[in-house]
Amino acid sequence: LTGFITLDTGFKNTGSTKSKITFLDGEKGILKYRGYSIEQLAEKSSFLEVAYLIVYGNLPTQAELEGFQGEISKHTLIHEDMKKFFDGYPSRSHPMGQLGSLIFSLSTFYPECLKPNQTAEEQDLTIIKLLAKLPTIVSFIYKKSLGHPLIYPKNKYDYVTNFLWMTFGQRTEDYDVNPIVVSAMNKLLILHADHEQNCSASTVRIVGSSDCNLYASISAGIAALWGPLHGGANQAVIDMLELIKADGGDTEKWINKAKDKNDSFRMMGFGHRVYKNFDPRAKIIKKACDDILENLGIDDPILEIAKKLEEAALTDQYFIDRKLYPNVDFYSGIIYRALGFPSEMFTVLFALGRLPGWIAQWKEMHENKEPIGRPRQIYVGETDREFVDIKDRK
Ligand code: SDX
């Protein structure tokens, strides 16, 4: 082994690519998509506008946005045979397990995505179809979990309202579009839209680097996101807060458990590989929590527990020494819950928001003509061993 390999388990200090999509400053807690701050985008933009920005590089003009919405509205339905998947899943099966397999199967229903060296138009149509169909698939997963009839998209609705219609609408009623809910959903999806080379985006890039099609590459990203150390944390946070509430709300006790190396308990929603300051998304979501719950007239006791945990942790030396702050997952679940989603759906909602980022990362990797990803290792195993017949093994 020549001395050219440096061990960097977890890629903690490895720059895996050059990218123009998202800028993070972990020390200052800065996050920008294509140069625009998330604070401005979360306040002034819609999720579809931000999706266009992240995928194509610029905020759309009115005509471009209308064209984008128009193209998407042509592809919001899924192949009717895809509904057979839902009959095969066990009831109560986790929505992320369903989502990963359904998105993977898009490559079988829409095989044009497999064409090598797609033209720009062909690649764009492949992208549009995925952006269009994900909300439908997510809402179908939710409706099936309730045993409710599926609600098909209505193209008179904008992207986010259409998702809410398919998710919470009923065939027998007109949909009462609540602007507070639409605004909250847009904001949450915007804040999840990309985050440079996080675990799932890096997964999408490395799977795509083998020239694997977009749908299968995104499905691999969904698998990576499911982990509780990554996107699965948003469901784990709510489960944790419910546990602490059921245990009497003794935040000090649980802070001490999080610090105890002999205790497997982790303060979910805290800590980040890059942010060694506040996660700027957590700041925005925490404020949105108060506003949305108040506007919806909801008093959720776990919000107070979350705030008590945060206050206690931020003055605790263990957390201070390790620069552990609330991340994007710490408060997001409280809003999802207030909007009516069960905690099993939270990570699927993270995927819905992250889709434009994954697509942009996959697209950029191809535009950069990057080689297949193939890291090396430092071998520390057995060296030369002679084969022993099974009859002679001890
Ligand atoms: C996301 O990368 C991204 O950008 C991800 C994301 C995105 O938008 O894509 O931002 C989304 O995944 C946010 C993170 C969600 N995960 C969680 O909330 C799970 C809980 N957090 C952690 O497990 C942890 O903080 C990570 C996974 C987020 C980061 O892990 P690192 O960078 O590998 O840090 P580490 O595990 O080495 O921790 C360093 C120290 C350790 O203590 P010491 O060995 O130094 O004594 O901090 C401790 C850890 O034990 N620590 C925690 C802790 N997180 C870190 N201790 C208690 N509770 C925690 N949550």
From TrEMBL:
<protein>
    <recommendedName>
        <fullName>Citrate synthase</fullName>
    </recommendedName>
</protein>
<dbReference type="InterPro" id="IPR016143">
    <property type="entry name" value="Citrate_synth-like_sm_a-sub"/>
</dbReference>
<keyword id="KW-0816">Tricarboxylic acid cycle</keyword>
<dbReference type="GO" id="GO:0036440">
    <property type="term" value="F:citrate synthase activity"/>
</dbReference>
<dbReference type="InterPro" id="IPR036969">
    <property type="entry name" value="Citrate_synthase_sf"/>
</dbReference>
<dbReference type="InterPro" id="IPR016142">
    <property type="entry name" value="Citrate_synth-like_lrg_a-sub"/>
</dbReference>
<dbReference type="InterPro" id="IPR002020">
    <property type="entry name" value="Citrate_synthase"/>
</dbReference>
<dbReference type="InterPro" id="IPR019810">
    <property type="entry name" value="Citrate_synthase_AS"/>
</dbReference>
<dbReference type="Pfam" id="PF00285">
    <property type="entry name" value="Citrate_synt"/>
</dbReference>
<keyword id="KW-0012">Acyltransferase</keyword>
<dbReference type="InterPro" id="IPR024176">
    <property type="entry name" value="Citrate_synthase_bac-typ"/>
</dbReference>
<comment type="pathway">
    <text>Carbohydrate metabolism; tricarboxylic acid cycle; isocitrate from oxaloacetate: step 1/2.</text>
</comment>
<dbReference type="InterPro" id="IPR010953">
    <property type="entry name" value="Citrate_synthase_typ-I"/>
</dbReference>
<keyword id="KW-0808">Transferase</keyword>
<comment type="similarity">
    <text>Belongs to the citrate synthase family.</text>
</comment>
